[in-house]
Amino acid sequence: MNNKEIYINNTLTGKKEKFKPIKENFVGIYVCGPTVYSEVHLGNCRTFVFFDTLVRYFHFLGYKVRYVRNITDVGHLVNDADEGEDKIAKKAKIEQLEPMEIVQKYTLNFHEVMRSFNTLPPDIEPTATGHINEQISMVEKILKNGFAYEVNGSVYFDVKKFLESGNDYGELSGRNIEDLLAGSRDLDGQQDKKSPQDFALWKNADDSHIMKWDSPWGVGFPGWHLECSAMSSKYLGNKFDIHGGGMDLKFPHHECEIAQAKGANHEHPVNYWVHSNMLTLNGKRMSKSTGNTILPFELFTGSSPHLTKSFSPSVVRFFMLQAHYSGVLDFSNDALIASEKGFRKLMNAFDLIKHHDFVEQHIDEQQNSKVESLCSSCFTFMSDDFNTPKVIASLFELVSIVNHFNSTSWSISNSTFELLQKTFCGFIEQVLGLENEITGNSSLTNQLIELVLELRKDAKANKNYQISDKIRDELVKIGVEIKDGKDTTSYTIKN
Question: Which one of 153, 159, 243, 266 is CB 3.0 to 4.6 Å from 270, fit for a cystine?
Fold first, then answer.
């Protein structure tokens, strides 16, 4: 396998396939972004961290990448249905704000969290409201091609007509129409549909609907699925390389995207579909109703009842990448603590290798060969369906070798050290997107803070609360916030 040979587990075929870009040395990637009506949750974060890593790796290999990730700011109705309130409009009523104030508020929150996780911004970040004309044009195409129908100012995709034309509705999710019909139910307000499986391309808006636009079919708003089809084709073409998103979007969202694209342009829009899996918390599905949930800022501040301390965004990103994107990842306090220890060990080696003034002395051919092999394995594993846990395992094997070297006696050749430095530092910084939590010697800084906290603990034990409070206040002044738990004290370094 050469460095540019990448194999991707294609959700569409269920097979691992060699990646062949449509245009040589260019990759077009579309990832479904958030619906900005609330604070971004960790499940979303995992998806975006993974696709950020995927994009970074293509860059690292020398590909030119166009990464498109949308913002859904209209059309996504509650329960992902074709009837009911728009999620953003509903939140606007609750918070007594304009819908676009809600959009702005939670888009800013999303961007802040993404920056915390050191994700690269997409090359293009289109919004649904900014592409109403493109969505209307796509509906007109689908109507013209006979795969949709208009009724009472709404336009629906005709799934039966689509199937009768030799197309497959359910090819991505593996569902057949009989199963879909059997599992469907009649919903209030859907009497306009010919079939329960037909989905909205454009919805008529009554006077109470806040977000609406003029169209050839009357005043209304686009269906949720439509925006991604319209915007991906606008910026990546009718056929592009990779479409990504969370596993929960396979059906109906991505299935509808395929149907819309075929209905408008008579071809499948994407060569490779990639889906990241879900998160659990303490072995259970995350749920707001049960309290089994955690937000990113709660991780960073340690304010969650599920945590005994805070964790930096870099540690959390590292933790996410220790599991393969296709598997379920379980968050827990103990797992994060273990991950933090591993992260610090890795970053200490990173600092050593990056800043080491290497002078070739004697060469241990066996050691030399092992380093070269481990460097090569980083590319092999990452190119094999973006296997970040195996990449990290190889990096830790390199850490073990580095830690056996002393500062004056490296038993590898100059060329091998250059390979080690380029690979080790390149994968940590450029591919995995990991960064030191603080500048300078992070290990020493953490040791000093922990020493000061021990002194504060002794002061409290001796009931010297004046000294204890002074230590806390002085730490806060220099950007170290502390949180006293039942048995432990945690700290967060503010950049």
Answer: 243
Q: Cα–Cα–Cα angle for 484, 485, 487, nearest 5°? A: 115
Pairing of strands 154-157, 489-493: unpaired
* 329-343 pLDDT tens trace: 999 999 999 999 999
Spatial distance between the Cα atoms of 338 and 334, rounded to a whole number of angstroms: 6
- Domain of residue 374 covers 298-431
Under 8 Å between Cβ of 274 and 54: yes
Prediction pTM value = 0.86
Judgement on whether residues 40 and 173 belong to the same structural domain of the protein: yes
Closest CA relative to residue 113, chosen from 183, 178, 33, 199? 33
**Number of CB atoms found within 10 A of residue 334's CB:** 9
Peptide bond preceding 216 in cis form (omega within 30 of 0): no
Using DSSP's 3-state secondary structure scheme, residue 345 falls into: helix
pLDDT band at 368 (very low <50, low <70, confident <90, very high): very high
Residues 182 and 61 placed together within one structural domain of the fold:
yes
Other C-beta atoms closer than 10 Å to the C-beta of 265 total 18
Asked if residue 313 has a cis previous peptide bond (ω within 30° of 0), the answer is no
Specify burial of residue 257 (Cβ count, 10 A radius: 0-12, 13-18, 19+): buried
Q: What's at 386, amino acid-wise?
A: F
Verify that 418 and 446 share a domain, yes or no. Answer: no
Helices (H), 356-431: 365-383, 388-404, 414-426
With contact defined as beta carbons under 8 Å apart, do 169 and 162 qualify? yes
- Domain match, 214 and 146 both: yes
**Residue position matching structure tokens 């937000």:** 295
